[in-house]
DNA sequence: ACTATATAGTTTGATATCGAACCAAAAGGA
DNA sequence: TCCTTTTGGTTCGATATCAAACTATATAGT
């Protein structure tokens, strides 16, 4: 007799559970993205700000390819984002001395101050959050989210 | 003396913590969205599938306005998505008998079977997930995510 | 050394989404 | 009853993103 129900790799409820999870995450991403977008100064998009922020926190001199991988966007998207930032004068692109195909991304002084200004605009947006969503809760679920992100990132 | 540091409404670390949270959520949404998109049959987008799924799970007959609110997209976006679904023959739009401005959204039989097919395509995509991200963990963080979503939803 | 393959970055065409403006219908107030 | 305001839905223009094709350079295998 064939094992029709012997190995229920995915009980129906489990799928539904994961599905709710991704749905909830999708809506949060949408809401927070729109919200941040609205208050960001200098016509910065969330993606552009994230890039500036990344440069300040983790240092600059990264290649576009590594940035695209870090942010999980296509190379084409990263090209576009970097061009926008360069047009605003917030980054500088230099050829990679060791690899003629590659480039290096550096923040300019005005890029750094734009990031400062953006942070200032973003903080009050989260002013009331700790009331209903304490920082401890954020810290508690972050590791789980990281695990999920890593699984999605590696298994594709 | 003015209370310069008296009420640190947002310690710097707290802001950074929330920021990491939203960043992580944004990347997960991006990765899972792209992933689902790739395997969805019938040229369905994630948004379209979510709509079909919503109809099956919570019943149909909703108005576009309520759907837009439920999914946190603009009315224009919902109009567009509904038109696509209608063109595929997956939903039917009827005038609301009680309100001449409004419409009601109903699933067709082929809409229901398209949703079935999409579910079938989606499940294997999550096959390996329980290994590194057990369902219990999903259940554990879901309430927190709901709280976050609700806060974002109400405070805007 | 040569050839094949992989990688860095750009470009192109398509599309989902947004915000804002718009029209029509409903609801509320004087 | 009329006028104002709110609400439901569509349309429009702009834009961020994707996938795929393409060029150029680097790496690897024989």
Structure overview:
The structure is a homodimer of 156-residue chains. Chain A has helices at residues 12-39, 46-58, 64-71, 75-87, 109-122, 129-132, 135-154; strands spanning 91-95, 103-107. In chain A, α2 (46-58) packs across α5. A two-stranded antiparallel sheet of chain A has the order 1-2. In chain A, a hairpin with a 7-residue loop joins β1 (91-95) and β2 (103-107). Chain A is built from seven helices and two strands, in the order ααααββααα. The first copy, chain A, is mostly helical. Chain A is globular and about 55 Å long. Chains A and B meet through α1, α2, α6 and α7 of A and α1, α2, α6 and α7 of B. Chain A binds a DNA duplex (30 and 30 nucleotides) through residues 30, 34, 37, 45, 47, 63-65, 68, 73-81, 96, 99-103.
Helical run tally of chain A: 7
Helix content of chain A: 55-70%
- Compute the number of strand runs of chain A: 2
Radius of gyration of chain A: 20 Å
């Amino acid at each position: 007799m064939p094992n029709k129900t012997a190995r229920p790799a995915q009980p129906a409820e489990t799928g539904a559970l994961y599905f709710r999870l991704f749905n909830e995450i999708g809506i949060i991403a949408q809401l927070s993205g729109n919200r941040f977008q609205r208050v960001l100064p200098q016509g910065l998009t969330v993606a552009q700000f994230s890039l500036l922020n990344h440069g300040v926190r983790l240092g600059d001199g990264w290649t576009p390819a590594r940035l695209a991988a870090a942010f999980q966007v296509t190379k084409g998207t990263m090209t576009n984002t970097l061009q926008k930032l360069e047009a605003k004068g917030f980054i500088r692109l230099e050829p990679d001395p060791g690899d003629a195909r590659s480039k290096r991304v550096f923040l300019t002084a005005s890029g750094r101050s734009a990031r400062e200004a953006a942070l200032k605009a973003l903080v009050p947006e989260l002013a009331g959050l700790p009331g209903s969503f304490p920082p401890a809760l954020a810290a508690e679920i972050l590791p789980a989210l990281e695990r999920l992100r890593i699984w999605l990132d590696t298994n594709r």
